[in-house]
Amino acid sequence: MIEFHRAVLSTVYLCLDVKSTMIQVVGHTNPDSDSICSALVAAEWLKAARGYDTVALAQGEPTGESAFILEQAGVAAPAICETVAGQQVWLVDFTDLSQAPKGIEDAEVVGVIDHHRLGDLITANPLEAWIWPVGCCSTILYNLFVMENIEISRANAVLMLGAICSDTVAFRSPTCTEKDVIAAEALAKIAGLDLEAFCEELMLVKTNLNGLSIASLVDRDLKKFPVKDDFVVVGQIEIASFDQVTDKIEALQEELAGRCASGELKLAALMVTNISTSVTKLLFQGEWSNMLAEHASETNIVEMENTLSRKKQGWPWLQTVLGA
Ligand SMILES: [Mn+2]
Predict the structure, then answer these.
(1) Does the keyword DNA-binding apply (predicted)?
(2) Which fold is adopted by the domain 17-203?
(3) Please, where in the chain does CATH 3.90.1640.10 lie?
(4) Which CATH architecture does the domain made up of 214-321 adopt?
(5) Looking at the predicted structure, is the pLDDT value of residue 19 above 50?
(6) How far, in Å, is the centroid of ligand 1 from the Cα of 268?
(7) Cα 38 to ligand 1 centre (Å)
């Protein structure tokens, strides 16, 4: 009997051994502030709540907005993720393989924190998954800290607050829920920040396009979506006035057309969203452009009123038009 217990115990220790390897926590391609901040915070939450060894990674450099939040929090940017092959991974802010790092097919996804539709990820083993239809991953994370009764540091509070204000466009987006507002108010208190002033400053940084090349404007929040057996990409830039982009539209259209040149992408689109008026101009190029033509107000531009969110408005509309 004792021998039996020993055998069971050594099996348990073996399992624990597996868990003691470094877990990589990573957000989606072309990382936005949520992907950067939530990866950092999730790595801390996993250390505190699960006792794991973790490292936060990002699939790209922080945007100006993310850099602002990191600076406010006094936290360094996550290291760049080269490959996750052979690693145990937690995904934050996505479950679509098209937004995953290299080597994902040879990695073990052991956890997910996300607020998007469930993507095409399939796992070999049971995983821990926290997927809520809220405005931001960090809102879920805030609730996970509360659930596990773990104290939230000022740095983590600033990171989560920044991610929530960014993803919900200062609570204006239709993706914003009551849970996001409650989390942000609590986090602002912990961070010792005035919520309104912080949001205002963040929106100024978010809509600042100074010094950004045409290619980087297309890339900064570009997401690739599978449609039947093909792919389309949809980016988004947020501005405070269309005057900021009037002289860039032609170059942006050329850049989008260039993205479709190889034939791999059937459509390349960019939502140019005025967050002051909630008007989005959807620029589009590629083989499937003809499907959008009847909706266009100008050549290769669809104007969409009351449209701030790609996830809830832009992309669902495109899916319908493309018959996806
Ligand atoms: Mn997000």
Answers:
(1) no
(2) inorganic pyrophosphatase (n-terminal core) (3.90.1640)
(3) 17-203
(4) Roll (3.10)
(5) no
(6) 21
(7) 8
Cα–ligand 1 centroid distance for 311 (angstroms):
10
Q: How far is the CA of 6 from the centre of ligand 1 (A)?
A: 46
CA of 159 to the centre of ligand 1 (A): 13
pLDDT band at 69 (very low <50, low <70, confident <90, very high): very high
d(CA 308, ligand 1 centre) in Å: 14
For residue 145, pLDDT over 60 is answered with yes
Percent of the residues in the chain that have a pLDDT greater than 70, as a whole number: 94
- Helix/strand/coil (H, E, C) string of the chain? CHHHHHHHHHHHHHHHHHHCCCEEEEEEECCCHHHHHHHHHHHHHHHHHHCCCEEEEEECCCCHHHHHHHHHHCCCCCEECCCCCCCEEEEECCCCHHHCCCCHHHCEEEEEEECCCCCCCCCCCCCEEEECCCCCHHHHHHHHHHHCCCCCCHHHHHHHHHHHHHHCCCCCCCCCCHHHHHHHHHHHHHHCCCHHHHHHHHHHHHCCCCCCCHHHHHHCCCEEEEECCEEEEEEEEEECCHHHCHHHHHHHHHHHHHHHCCCCEEEEEEEEEECCCCEEEEEEECHHHHHCHHHCCECCEEEECCCCCHHHHHHHHHHHHCCC
